[in-house]
Amino acid sequence: MATIFDAWQFGSASWAVASATHARPEAIDALQRQRLAALLEVVRDRSSFYRDRFKGLPAGPEALLELQPVHRRELMDRFDEWVCDPDLKLEELRHFTADHRNIGEPYLGRYLVWESSGTSGSPGIFVQDAHCMALYDALEGQRRSAVRLAQRLFDPLGLGERIAFVGVTDGHFASYVTVERLRRLQPWMASSVRSFSILQPQEALLAQLQDFSPTVIASYPSAAAMLGQEVAGQRLCLPALREIWTGGETLSAVARHRLEQQLGAVLRNSYGSSEFLAMGWECRAGRMHLNSDWVLLEPVDEHQRPLPPGEPSASVWLTHLGNTVQPLIRYDLGDHVRFVPEACPCGCALPVIEVQGRRDDTLRVAGVNGRPVPLLPLALSTVLEECVGLFDFQICQKDDQTLILRLPMTGEEGRRALAQARTVLTEYARSQGAQPIRVLGELGIRVPRGRSGKSCRILS
């Protein structure tokens, strides 16, 4: 089967990535400016959407500082004006992605296509050419730190691995499309790289995973947490598992530690999105480095003002320096990121970031002073994770004094967890100045997942 791969492009991208991985900060800054200038030249010439946006702005990279941010819905509404290849038409791409038989197939013989999950409210369609895929391959291959270095040295082709991707397998989502592409690029791995649907009945998923006995599981943190609970409850046995690869959702330090303990494996987290597949990677010191030689992230507050390192952002604006077919320039990604001001002990000059991803809803409950009190989703998740040990849950707000907590557990285990959760949630709300709240419980309910398999744990 055909797929998107160009050996020359991959070699060129690999050299560029390798040479910048340990470059000095000023060299990385120079690469950014050079690639930004080249990108702006292309979009001014080929994208009528961006040509309009840049009208009246300076010609060089300085124009970026004056450009207003763009949003996904706006870009999708003007898709045919946005892209730089006139052969790309939104309606034709939608028809292409409507057919699941096309997952991983090249579109027009030269593009890989995937959909976004729509967790930010507006689903999108993203196309990648051979250059873009070569860049992602090089970033993953050169910078993702090997968990078992000796194993990688003696088995560079991964012939001794059994890799299980646990996610959604009936849509054109980036993670699944790239797994299918890998199977086609490396047919000798086709039998040892398998995908398992997270949306099938849980009993069937557990049976399939146990039969496959993976050495590596790649999934979302919430899905991995579910598997960890099943292993802890002795309903799933994964004796060969050595590594867990997570991404796509927020991963707290507590959840990470619990996953490694339950699954008996080392976890490596990454940062990516439908817009840029390989934005961040973890070094051996456990820090997340941004691939800033190829992607610019500008953290901003709720008023769209730039933030200095050390301050958590309300959102970030993304500029993709490697995609000249479907350019993303000052694109409002919606993620919450903090740039760490301290240098990383690993010695790499690429920026260190802390990622909270796209948060769930902020709940607003009645306050004792008559004003609504916001309950932040990160805080609610933290108290349940750290105080109760709950990682697979959903909180839904019924009214300004009532929350509904849904747990997949049943029986005495579920009742005990619900009682503990009710205590910590009501106490946390009281500490924030809220009137007394009620926490209703619903047991035996699996956490709902979106089209891409991501969970939404806190809903207003």
TrEMBL record:
<keyword id="KW-0436">Ligase</keyword>
<dbReference type="Pfam" id="PF00501">
    <property type="entry name" value="AMP-binding"/>
</dbReference>
<dbReference type="InterPro" id="IPR053158">
    <property type="entry name" value="CapK_Type1_Caps_Biosynth"/>
</dbReference>
<protein>
    <submittedName>
        <fullName>Phenylacetate--CoA ligase family protein</fullName>
    </submittedName>
</protein>
<feature type="domain" description="AMP-dependent synthetase/ligase">
    <location>
        <begin position="202"/>
        <end position="311"/>
    </location>
</feature>
<dbReference type="InterPro" id="IPR042099">
    <property type="entry name" value="ANL_N_sf"/>
</dbReference>
<dbReference type="InterPro" id="IPR000873">
    <property type="entry name" value="AMP-dep_synth/lig_dom"/>
</dbReference>
<dbReference type="GO" id="GO:0016874">
    <property type="term" value="F:ligase activity"/>
</dbReference>
